[in-house]
Every structure is written in structure tokens, then in C-alpha cells.
Design a protein that fits this description.
Length: 147
């Protein structure tokens, strides 16, 4: 695929992703780029219950992420972005974001970060950390002041 030259921002409805969206909007507007807003619906948790694993699908998860995308697109339009595209992905979050970036080849990817400690990242993982280490395009991490 050829260079898309858009800007990709991942959103999940959190304060950190809202910060990333604002930064991505500023960048897309400044450089006249398409803004690709992505949200990833993670796979449902699986709990071992003996011989048959129990898959627990929280209600309306996909719909909640659709609403996050709509809100993000509205915010981007308010900030004056001429072209915004929504993308709802499903799967492991880091893998899905990295694959999208690899397929699109944007000029920039933007993610929020919670500022987890090294120990928390070890046990909980970190989406921004995983994407930074595996993406093949520049990644901007939108951190809160003081992190």
C-alpha cells in the first residue's frame, strides 16, 4: 500500500485518549491531513471453569466503542478537520492498532498514555508501550502534564 499521509489516533473514551484526539486534531489541521480515528473492541475475557472455558461478553461493548468514534468524529469536525474517517477494529488492542498502522502507513500515529509505572506495565501491559515498540511509523504519545 502507498503512503496514506494521514494521521491516526486511537480512542477509547478515556481522558488520555481525549488528550490524544485533541493533539491529533491540531496536527491534522496544521498539515492538512485526513484524520483516521480508530477504536478497538478487545476480545471478551475467557475464564477457565474446568473443562469448558467460560467466555463473558459484556453487554453492548461494540456499541459503546461506536459511540466513542462518533463523539471523536464530532470533536474533530468542531476543531475544523476537513476529512475524518472512523475505523472500528476488533481483536487484541496492541496488535490491532499496529496492524492498522502497518496497512495505512500514516505519517503519524497518536496515542494517549496513563503513565503506568514499570511494575504496572509489566503486569497490566501498556497499549502505548506495545504500539511504540512494534509500529513502523512515528508515534506521538500524548501524556498529561507531569507524567
Amino acid at each position: 500500500m502507498t503512503q496514506d499521509q494521514g494521521i491516526v489516533v486511537a480512542v477509547d473514551g478515556s481522558e488520555e485518549s481525549d488528550r490524544a484526539l485533541r493533539m491529533a486534531c491540531e496536527m491534522a489541521k496544521a498539515f492538512g491531513q485526513t484524520l483516521h480515528v480508530i477504536a478497538v473492541v478487545p476480545p471478551p475475557p475467557v475464564y477457565p471453569t474446568g473443562t469448558i472455558p467460560l467466555v463473558v461478553e459484556p453487554p453492548d461493548v461494540t456499541e459503546a466503542f461506536r459511540k466513542v468514534l462518533v463523539r471523536a468524529q464530532e470533536e474533530a469536525a468542531k476543531s475544523g478537520i476537513a476529512k475524518v474517517e472512523q475505523h472500528l477494529l476488533q481483536g487484541p488492542v496492541v496488535d490491532s492498532i499496529v496492524q492498522f498502522l502497518e496497512d495505512r502507513k500514516p505519517m503519524l500515529g497518536v496515542l494517549g498514555a496513563r503513565g503506568l509505572s514499570a511494575g504496572a506495565r509489566l503486569f497490566l501491559g501498556s497499549v502505548s508501550d506495545g504500539v511504540v515498540h512494534h509500529a513502523k511509523c512515528p508515534i506521538l504519545i500524548a501524556r498529561a502534564p507531569g507524567l
